[in-house]
């Protein structure tokens, strides 16, 4: 874990250096964004297990992709939602979830080739709603770090469950993210059949599914589009080859249409565009 922490921390601060110069610059827009972020308090548990508390304007550059959950995942008899942990192949760490929808959202982030690490319940934001003279707070569901150093804050809530109060919180969170140069995403249920296909491929996300000789032959076979099973059988016994094939699809080294229909025998597989490798 120490080596991973060092790699992610180095990538984060190298990519964020330019952002810091912008915020420290003299432009009115940058100064306004800095003041806005400084009025928001953030509480989190850093990679060393130490609780931190301070203004977001001070801590926005911290590696939130490495933090521990700021609150516990509660489970009890009779609860309607399902809590658990998802093992993210991206950062080789567990991230928590409080529903199947959140689990699918974590899976989608893990599948995204731009994501290099993610954390669940990464921090607690607190601010004063001056219009209504009351204190507000919010804990986003996920924080993801992209390869270019960008931070992504994710809230998971299906559209039908976003009431007026939640919409206000999400809007404010989006404004906070914009102020410090992060992206904000509010996601809901994944569409079918993408959800089914993603859940299937996630079974083969672990590096143990990678067999180098088989993977090399699969890349050669699928240099031109071929049906999934026909291509696998051209390499060898399908029971031995298919796990490696699905792993390469998870890694985006091979590509397939995941949105039109469930994966099947005749699904066309081809080499992924070079820029996605």
TrEMBL record:
InterPro entries: TnsA-like
Protein name: TnsA-like heteromeric transposase endonuclease subunit
Originating species: Embleya scabrispora
């Amino acid at each position: 874990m120490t080596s991973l922490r060092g790699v992610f921390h180095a990538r984060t601060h190298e990519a964020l250096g330019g952002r810091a110069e912008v915020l420290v610059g003299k432009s009115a827009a940058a100064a306004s964004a800095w003041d806005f972020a400084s009025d928001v308090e953030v509480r989190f548990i850093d990679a060393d297990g130490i609780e931190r508390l301070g203004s977001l304007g001070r801590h926005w550059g911290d590696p939130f992709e490495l933090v521990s959950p700021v609150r516990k995942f509660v489970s009890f008899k009779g609860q309607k939602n399902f809590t658990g942990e998802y093992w993210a192949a991206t950062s080789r760490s567990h991230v928590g979830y409080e529903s199947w929808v959140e689990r699918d959202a974590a899976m989608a982030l893990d599948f995204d080739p731009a994501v290099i690490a993610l954390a669940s319940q990464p921090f607690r934001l607190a601010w004063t709603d001056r219009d209504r003279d009351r204190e507000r707070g919010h804990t986003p569901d996920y924080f993801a770090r992209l390869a270019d150093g960008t931070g992504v804050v994710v809230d998971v809530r299906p559209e039908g469950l976003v009431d007026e109060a939640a919409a206000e919180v999400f809007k404010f969170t989006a404004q906070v993210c914009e102020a410090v140069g992060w992206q904000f995403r509010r996601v809901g249920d994944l569409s079918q059949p993408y959800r089914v296909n993603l859940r299937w491929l996630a079974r083969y996300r672990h590096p143990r599914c990678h067999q180098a000789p088989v993977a090399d032959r699969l890349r050669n076979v699928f240099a031109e589009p071929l049906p999934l099973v026909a291509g696998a059988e051209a390499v060898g016994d399908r029971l031995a080859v298919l796990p490696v094939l699905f792993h390469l699809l998870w890694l985006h080294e091979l590509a397939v249409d995941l949105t039109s229909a469930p994966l099947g025998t005749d699904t066309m597989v081809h080499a992924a565009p070079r820029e996605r490798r």
